[in-house]
């Protein structure tokens, strides 16, 4: 039976950790869900790990539609989230709806978009019209040029207060889930405690989030580029890709990943 947003929200309420990984094709989608991953994210990280770009900015809408359809054909059970790429949602809510609807028609059950306060109107618009939205705050990679690099966010008090406030506003606007990327573990813990029914999925956000996500090519040590501190190489101690993913799921559930060495 298909895992739904309700399933994941219930898991979060009951204190069961959610294991999410990125996926970009049908074979990996099938392998990941067989190894126990509950949610698959077709991340625009594909621009870096599949296409070889330095950032996620060049990823096109057609790329996301294509890879979402590939993952959807391989995954029978996992909850599928498709990223909205740069430039496809920082526009009118009406035009964003058209782009989000294409990702949903390709097989996603939710779309993810980066940003806080400026995205509230769009999130309200999409969710009121049947498209579940996952927010994404902290180190939002599409804003790398605004940040001046891939830097941890929310370290100062005013920035931390802004992120906490934005998480609350995103939930009020209708976001059903939120990714917290590269922020101090204590702040992620505070945001997680402040949510009512919006699971927090951490990547470089400490162990207290309702779930964890990593980029598949990072945790399998396939991506040749620089690794962030929050990445763990699960392949090193595993005999197979399936084994590496099973260990990831086990460690997320047991709250042993991420450890202090992967957190800020
Ligand atoms: O694009 C992606 O893979 C992501 C994750 C890093 C959360 O947004």
Helix content: 40-55%
> What kind of oligomer do you see?
single chain
Give every kind of bound small molecule, once each. 3-methyl-2-oxobutanoic acid
Q: How much β-strand is present in the residues?
A: 5-15%
Low-confidence stretches: none
Q: Main beta sheet: strand number and arrangement?
A: 8 strands, parallel, barrel
Strand order of the largest sheet: 1-2-3-4-5-6-7-8
Helix-strand sequence: HEHEHHEHEHEHHEHEEHH
Q: Look at the helices and sheets and give the structural class.
A: alpha/beta
End-to-end separation in angstroms reads 37 Å
What best-fitting shape do the alpha-carbon axes yield?
A: globular
Number of helices: 11
Q: Return the average pLDDT rounded to an integer.
A: 98
| Radius of gyration, in angstroms, nearest whole number | 17 Å
What is the number of beta strands? 8
């Amino acid at each position: 039976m298909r895992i739904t947003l309700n399933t994941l929200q219930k898991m979060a309420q009951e204190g069961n950790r959610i294991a999410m990984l990125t996926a970009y094709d049908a074979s990996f989608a099938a392998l990941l869900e067989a190894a126990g991953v509950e949610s698959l994210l077709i991340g625009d990280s594909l621009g870096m790990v599949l296409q070889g770009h330095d950032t996620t900015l060049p990823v096109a809408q057609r790329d996301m539609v294509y890879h979402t359809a590939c993952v959807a054909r391989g995954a029978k059970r996992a909850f599928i989230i498709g990223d909205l790429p740069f430039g496809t949602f920082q526009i009118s809510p009406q035009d964003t709806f058209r782009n989000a609807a294409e990702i949903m028609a390709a097989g996603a059950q939710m779309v993810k978009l980066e940003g806080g306060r400026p995205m509230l109107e769009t999130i309200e618009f999409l969710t009121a019209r049947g498209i579940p939205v996952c927010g994404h705050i902290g180190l939002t990679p599409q804003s790398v040029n605004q940040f001046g690099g891939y830097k941890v966010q929310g370290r100062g008090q005013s920035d931390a207060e802004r992120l906490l406030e934005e998480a609350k506003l995103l939930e009020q606007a209708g976001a059903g889930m939120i990714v917290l990327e590269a922020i101090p573990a204590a702040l992620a813990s505070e945001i997680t405690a402040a949510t009512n029914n919006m699971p927090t999925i951490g990547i470089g956000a400490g162990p207290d989030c309702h779930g964890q996500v990593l980029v598949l090519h990072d945790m399998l040590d396939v991506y040749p580029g620089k690794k962030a501190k929050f990445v763990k190489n699960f392949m090193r101690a595993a005999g197979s890709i399936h084994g590496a993913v099973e260990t990831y799921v086990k460690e997320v559930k047991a709250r042993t990943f991420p450890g202090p060495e992967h957190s800020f």
